[in-house]
Amino acid sequence: MPFAARAADDVSPQELRHRLAGLQRLLDVTRVLAAEIDLNMILQEIAVEACVALDCERASVYQYDPKREELYTRVATELEIAEIRKDLYHGISGHVARTRTLANVPDPPRDARWDSTIDRATGFHTRNILAAPLTSPHDDRLLGVLQLLNKREGLFDAFDEDLLLAFSQHAAVALDRARLVDELRENQAVEASLNVARKIQQSFMPSRMPETPGYELATWWFPHQAVGGDYCDCMPLRDGRTSLVIADVSGHGLGPSLLMASVRAALRALMLEHSSPDVLLNLLARALAPDLQYGRFITMAMVALDPQTHAVQFANAGHAPVLHFCRESGTFLSLDATGVPLGVDDQPDYPQGPPIEMHVGDLLFLCTDGIVEATDSAHEQFGCERLQRIIRDCCDEPVGDIVRAVGRQVEAHYAGDSPPDDLTILAARRNA
C-alpha cells in the first residue's frame, strides 16, 4: 500500500501528523543526499532522521565487508562502542543481509535469530527491531543493513516498514555512490601507475642503434595495455663488439617495469668493465639477487656481435631461443637457453653457448615469448614454424621491414583481441 494511503488509513489526527512529519524527514534526507558528498555525514543524517521519523531509540547503518563476509557499523546513534562486526550467519541483521528481506521483530529475545552479544556488552535492552537490507540500485549487490531499535510507543507497524524501506533506499544510494567513486579513483590511480610504467618501459627501447659496420639493426615493440617488463637494448661493448639484449620480467604493471629499470642500469654498469655474455649474466644474477624475491624472475638472452670477425657469442638465461638465419642455406639455427631464468636459482651458472659466425645475408632474430606463443581465437599458437617462414620470405627486405612484417602477422593472428603480453623483437643482419 502506498505511503499516502497508509498515512490516511484510519489513524488519529495525532498519528497522522506524526506520519507526515516522518515523510518530511525523508524529504530532508533527499535534499542532503543531493547536496552532500561525504558518506559518513550522509549516513549519519539518514540514521538520525530515520530514528526521529520512526520515533525509536537507536539507528545503525551496517556496511557489508565482502572480503570478510561481515557487517560492521558505519554509523550508529547513541552508541559508545567504536565498531561492531557481525558475520552474516548470526543475529537478525545478519539474517536480513543474507536473505535480503526486511525483518520486523516485536520481541527479539524470543526470536531464534536473536544474538544478545551487543546488549550484554553495552547494557542496552533491545525490546524490538526493524531492519532492512541495503542493496545496490545498479546490480543488486549487498551493501549493508539499516537497523532501528526500540519503538518508543508500541511496536513498529506497516507504515514504519514502508518508511524504513524508503530511508534504506537513500542509504543504499549513498553507499553505492561512494563505492563507484572509490572504484573510479582506484581506476584512475591504476591508470596513472600504468602510464608511468609505459613511460619507463618506452625508455628501455633503444632510440638509436649503435654504429655497427656492415650490419643493419632494428627493433619492433607492441606494448600490452597492462604493461609488462619487456626490455631490449643494443650497446657498444668496451672491446668493440655490439651487444644485443632482450629480456622479460614475469608479471605486469609498475613493479616489473621498475625492476627492469634496475636490470637495465645494472647491466649497463657491468658493460663498462665486461664484454662476455656469460660473465655479464653471471654478474648480473648476483647483483639482482636481492631484488629477485617473492617469485619474481627474469628471462634474458644476450649476444655479443663482432663486426670485424663476424663471430657471435651468446648466453641465454631461460629466454626464448635466439634464431640465426643462414641466408645461403635458408635454414635456422636455434641458440637455446644455457641456464635458468634469473631469480630461479640461488647459485646459477650461465655458460656461453657454442660460437657461430655471421655470413653476408645472415640474420639474428631475438624476441620475447609473446611472439611465438601468440594464440588466436581457436587456441592455435603463432608458432616458430610460421615465424621462420615469414623471416625466410622477407629475408632480403630491410631489417626494419622484416621485424614489422613479423609484428603485423602476430597482431593479425590475435584477430582483434588484445595480446596478453608485450611483443618485442630485436634483429641484426650482416649486409657486407
Question: Strands of the largest sheet, in order across it?
Answer: 3-2-1-6-5-4
Total individual domains: 2
How widely separated are the two ends? 91 Å
CATH class of the largest domain: Alpha Beta
**Largest sheet properties:** 6 strands, antiparallel
- Strand proportion: 15-25%
| Average of pLDDT | 86
Count of DSSP helices?
11
* CATH homology superfamily of the largest domain: PPM-type phosphatase domain
Give the topology string: H per helix, E per strand.
Answer: HHHEEEHEHEEHEEEHHEEEEEEHHHE
Helix fraction, binned, reads: 25-40%
CATH topology of the largest domain: Phosphatase 2c, domain 1
Instruction: Just name the CATH architecture of the largest domain.
Output: 4-Layer Sandwich
Radius of gyration: 34 Å
Molecular shape? elongated
The tally of beta strands, per DSSP, is 16
User: What structural class do the secondary elements suggest?
Assistant: alpha+beta
Q: Low-confidence spans: pLDDT under 50, at least 5 residues?
A: none
